[in-house]
Design brief:
single chain, 281 residues, alpha/beta, 2 domains, 5-stranded parallel sheet
């Protein structure tokens, strides 16, 4: 594993013929047509890419959206995509930087170190006039992926609750108005506001032109949000998607062991037994 969780389009272009480099489109669209990202994948994708469906590669026994699957399920589904032990995985999405970090985090959760997010994603690849494939993808031969679960990279509701009682750091990626409880939640039935003592850093502030900001800017934004980088951090958001963007940003500045609260506000705000506050942090 290098010190950088990102790779450039040039880096990837030079390795498209490397059989051990596997390219993954992990696009996800909030609301609307759930089939749209897959249709867009068939319309134009980086050559050799496979589609990582974050709602399919998930725990279907949970009522919560796209929760991380078991190690056994992930191993089976990653292998079915042709991704195996010893591979290097490069993840991108069609927005530039939105859902790719969720897949990046999921691969890391199950033990893969050599996984990276493509800087600028598909928009930058297209803007540079690089080659694309169209139509249904070629099915790769299945591979053997051995999952090694890393519990330190994920938190459940009870772990977050216990942590907050002991001054743990929680960083929330939702928009400021949602964090303060000043606007309606997209998912019905959720309470408004945030966890006690949580800090807020809307994920969009970390992104410029579809790319993660430079490390010195990331560090400044994270510290300005009230995070002590010498202490552990758990990230959260609406459903565990953009929390992974915060985790990616923290990895970019050297904090690789950041945990993601997988259930995030969909779980916390949907329960009656979890404390909620409104207003600024």
């Amino acid at each position: 594993m290098t010190a950088n969780p990102l790779v450039t389009t040039q880096w990837l272009a030079e390795r498209l013929d490397d059989a051990r480099v596997k390219v993954v489109d992990a696009s996800w669209g909030m609301g609307g047509d759930p089939g749209r990202p897959r249709a867009a994948f068939e319309a134009a994708r980086i050559p050799g890419a496979v589609f990582f469906d974050v709602d399919e590669i998930a725990d279907h026994a949970s009522p919560l959206p796209h929760m991380a699957p078991s190690p056994e399920q992930f191993a089976e589904q990653a292998g079915a995509l042709g991704i195996g032990d010893g591979d290097t995985v490069v993840v991108y999405d069609q927005a530039g930087l939105f859902s790719a970090p969720r897949a990046w985090w999921t691969f890391r959760l199950f033990g893969l170190d050599e996984v990276y997010v493509l800087e600028g994603g598909l928009p930058q690849w297209l803007a540079e006039g690089r080659p694309v494939e169209r139509g249904p993808p070629v099915v790769r031969p299945p591979a053997v992926f051995t999952a090694h679960f890393r519990p330190e990279l994920v938190r459940d509701v009870e772990q977050v609750r216990a942590g907050l009682e002991h001054n743990a750091q929680v960083l929330d990626a939702r928009a400021a108005a949602r964090f303060r409880g000043e606007t309606v939640e997209a998912r019905p039935g959720l309470r408004y506001g945030h966890m006690p003592h949580a800090r807020n850093l809307p994920f969009g502030e970390l992104i410029e032109n579809g790319r993660l900001r430079p490390p010195e800017q990331l560090r400044g934004l994270i510290e300005a949000a009230g995070v002590d980088l010498a202490r552990p951090v758990t990230t959260t958001c609406g459903s565990g998607m953009t929390a992974a963007i915060l985790a990616l940003a923290l990895a970019r500045i050297g904090r690789w062991e950041t945990a993601v609260y997988d259930g995030s506000w969909t779980e916390w705000g949907g329960r009656a037994d979890t404390p909620v506050v409104t207003g600024a942090a």
